[in-house]
Amino acid sequence: MEKIFQKLALSSASLVFVLLVGIFITLYSAAKPAIDEFGFDFITNPDWNKEVPIEISSSTAVTPSTNMSDKASSEVKDASIEDEDDMMLDDEDDDMMLDDEDDDVTTKTIYGGLVPIVGTLLTTLIALVFALPIAMGIAVFLAEIAPKNISNVVGIAIELLAAIPSIIFGMWGLYYFAPIIADMFGGYQVSLLTAGLVLGVMILPFMAAITRDSMNTTPAVLKESAYALGATKFEVIKDIIFPYSKVGIIGSIILALGRALGETMAVAFLIGSIFVLPQKITDPTISIPVAMANNFGEASGLGESALFYLALILFIISFAVISIAKFYFLKKAK
Amino acid sequence: MRLIINKIFLGLSIFSALIGLAFLAWILTTLFIKGLSSFHFGLFLNDLIDGGLRNLIVGQMILAGLASIIGIPLGMAAGIYIQEYGRGKYADVIRDLSDIMMSAPSIVIGAFVYAVVVVPTGGTSGFAGAIALAIMMIPVVINTTDNMLSLVPRELREAGIALGASKYKVIIDIVIKAAKVGIMTGILLAFARIIGETAPLLFTSETSNYFSLDLTESFPSLTVSIYDLANEPEESSRDLAWAASFILTVLVLIINLSGRFITRNKK
């Protein structure tokens, strides 16, 4: 019995390891076709789902139609256009269908991940810039300024804000918050800016809560000796608490960043979901999670594989970010 | 001068706390006003196809419940291993990996379950959705169990062993009992978290307009339907989405608060 129980516990623990490795391998193998096709250029290519003329005809243009196989690769496109014209003259009803077929012959679809990658990083950055000062203020308020009972009540309220499902943030953001932001800054209601700000509101309570916890680890003796020397509250916070809990605070900021990177629903309502590089902060664009949420259902073949490629990139980024926070900063803080 | 800087700083800090509270109040009032204006008890009696939410609420509960049935035992067993049996590096590595998994993007977990469950079984299903939610839940339960067991005094374990109890008896009858309240709270918070999840369900369970208890088919999900409804152009769909969001938030906050209430009472 003892043995069985121990084995069960051990295998459940190992499940975590198996799952993480499994996620990585699964994403990689599902992304393999896209990785083979696009390589690392995927990361720098801004075109998503764009049809381009085929450069090499030998393997891709295997169709039994007319005189194509004899022609050199550069002539394939021209030949098919002539073909198309002939067909159109012959029978207009079949035009649409034939048009599609000709597209298959002369073009291929390419996928590049630059737009969603940039979108993800920029929304996260905006969220961080917005949330950081407010979260620090809240943490200072909770840890140092407010009397204990007020601190408790406000603390619970802030944690409740963290418990609200992200889809609610998205709806509220789209219908109530974004119009106000768009009035203030101009531009579209769905944009990098509005998506980033709503994301900021979302990570705010999370960031404030962990920062408060780090600040609370400062020994009371240190604070009291500083007060005894005549320091003001600001000086104690700046010179005693911040240096003492610095590592923990940076760790919590990075953890919040990790959460912002992977957030889907709040951003999905607000980012606009178009694969276009934003020129201004008020332009709509797309992020990796949103690209997955909106296109996964319709995607197949190479398109689906490209989405898995994006998922793999996101997974690696967030894995790296969280590892840095955990191993470097939070370990040190302990 | 120092005093003035101090005043300004304290003012800014209080101001930012007020901003945080203002956002909470703004979101909640929006939800209450929009949600309550389209709320009526008929929503609990009809399915989505007839303009109600019954199938979605039941479906979401079943998905989250099933995820808990899978996730809680596994998470607790893993937490027990880390805290009670694990020695040295392996337990530490698992603990760190579990922390990393807790912050993994939920949509990536959805994509993973899509690849390993949905594709092989030939379509979206309630099971796939529950598995995705369970994967979200396991690291949270591990974390809670680990933390709560570490608070149980060593003397209790030693006393049990001294009385001749075997180790698993000590763990089940003494250690878990002592940490029960804390673990319960953690599990409630984990449940509150997964019941509001949308992203992992988008391509695993999807959603359905009809009442369904068949876990092998697309399964009704409240959150996924909110997303669909909110994006529809008709005002009536959006009103329904607000009513659904209202119900969801009230549910999540009640579970969350009751979790906190249990701990407070015990303390």
What does this structure look like?
The complex is a heterodimer of chains A (334) and B (267). Chain A has helices spanning 2-38, 41-44, 57-60, 76-90, 95-106, 114-145, 148-163, 166-185, 192-215, 220-228, 233-262, 265-268, 288-295, 301-333; strands spanning 48-53, 107-111. Chain A is mainly α. Chain A has two domains: 51-111, no CATH class; 114-333, Orthogonal Bundle (MetI-like fold), CATH 1.10.3720. A two-stranded antiparallel ribbon of chain A has the order 1-2. The longest helix of chain A has 37 residues, at 2-38. Chain A is globular and about 80 Å long. Residues 57-104 of chain A have low confidence and may be disordered. By secondary structure, chain B is mostly helical. The two termini of chain B are 44 Å apart. In chain B, helix 1 (2-37) packs across helix 9 (235-266) and helix 4 packs across helix 5. The interface between A and B is large, with 84 and 85 residues.
CATH class of the largest domain in chain A: Mainly Alpha
Number of domains of chain A: 2
Mean pLDDT of chain B: 89
Name of the CATH homologous superfamily of the largest domain in chain A: MetI-like
Interface with most residues = A-B, 84 and 85 residues
Number-wise, the strands of chain B total 0
Per-chain topology:
The complex is a heterodimer of chains A (334) and B (267).
Chain A: H1 2-38, H2 41-44, E1 48-53, H3 57-60, H4 76-90, H5 95-106, E2 107-111, H6 114-145, H7 148-163, H8 166-185, H9 192-215, H10 220-228, H11 233-262, H12 265-268, H13 288-295, H14 301-333
Antiparallel strand pairs in A: 1-2
Chain B: H1 2-37, H2 54-85, H3 89-102, H4 106-121, H5 126-150, H6 154-162, H7 167-195, H8 222-230, H9 235-266
Helix pairs in contact in B: 1-9, 2-3, 2-5, 2-7, 3-5, 4-5, 5-7, 6-7, 7-9, 8-9
